[in-house]
Specification:
Blueprint lengths: L1 H25 L6 H4 L9 E3 L11 E4 L6 E12 L2 E11 L5 E8 L13 E2 L5 E3 L2 E2 L1 E4 L3 E7 L4 E7 L3 H8 L2 E4 L1 H4 L4 E3 L2 E3 L1
Antiparallel strand pairs: 1-3, 2-12, 3-4, 4-5, 5-11, 6-9, 7-8, 7-14, 9-10, 10-11, 12-13
Length: 195
């Protein structure tokens, strides 16, 4: 009888250990690659006088020289996100007609929600691609917003509404640059095109 009690206690302990293992160890959600991407350390915000001067942990969306648009400035700042901060670079260009084009980059890519603008709705029209990847096209009637996400950053290009041919030509001037490497001539042109 005593042996039976010890045997039952041992089985109960093993059963409770198994339940604990399943609940705690196996029940822990597995982190995805996006969750593993570290948040940057907080830093002071600063004004940007040239697109290549942005201190940023990922490639930044910019408009190339000779596009007919003049760089007017920008800023780089941190915004609270999850249990840390996300870094945002906002760069602006202006054309001769006074219209504004904004290139926004956010790191990490999962922080793209920080760039959300509820004034925009999904737009119909010719799909837009960046380096073979489909972009999300949105509009608010007077402006167009193109969004894409990469493995490290997300990019938002906001510009005035224009004819498809004009837009296609302008998008040929959009590039992703690595600011730390730009002084060595390492920039990557992203081919935006209308399908």
């Amino acid at each position: 009888m005593r042996v039976l009690r010890y045997l039952l206690a041992a089985v109960l302990i093993l059963l409770l250990t198994a339940v604990f293992y399943v609940a705690v160890v196996l029940g822990t959600p597995q982190e995805t690659a996006a969750q593993e991407q570290a948040l940057p350390a907080a830093s002071a915000s600063f004004s940007v006088s040239a697109p290549q001067s942005v201190d940023f942990p990922a490639q930044v969306l910019v408009l190339a020289d000779g596009s007919g648009w003049s760089f007017t400035g920008g800023s780089c700042y941190d915004q609270s996100f999850e249990n840390g901060v996300a870094r945002i670079a906002m760069l602006q260009w202006r054309n001769d007609a006074g219209e504004t084009l904004t290139c926004a980059t956010v790191y990490p890519a999962r922080a793209v929600t920080l760039l959300r603008d509820d004034a925009f709705a999904l737009a119909s029209g010719t799909p837009v691609t960046v380096a073979g990847v489909a972009m999300i096209r949105l509009t608010d009637g007077s402006r167009v917003r193109l969004q894409a996400s990469g493995s490290e950053a997300a990019w938002v290009l906001t510009l005035p509404a224009m004819e498809e041919q004009t837009l296609s030509t302008l998008l040929q001037s959009v590039m992703l640059i690595s600011p730390a490497e730009s002084s060595r001539g390492n920039s990557h042109k992203v081919h935006f095109s209308l399908l």
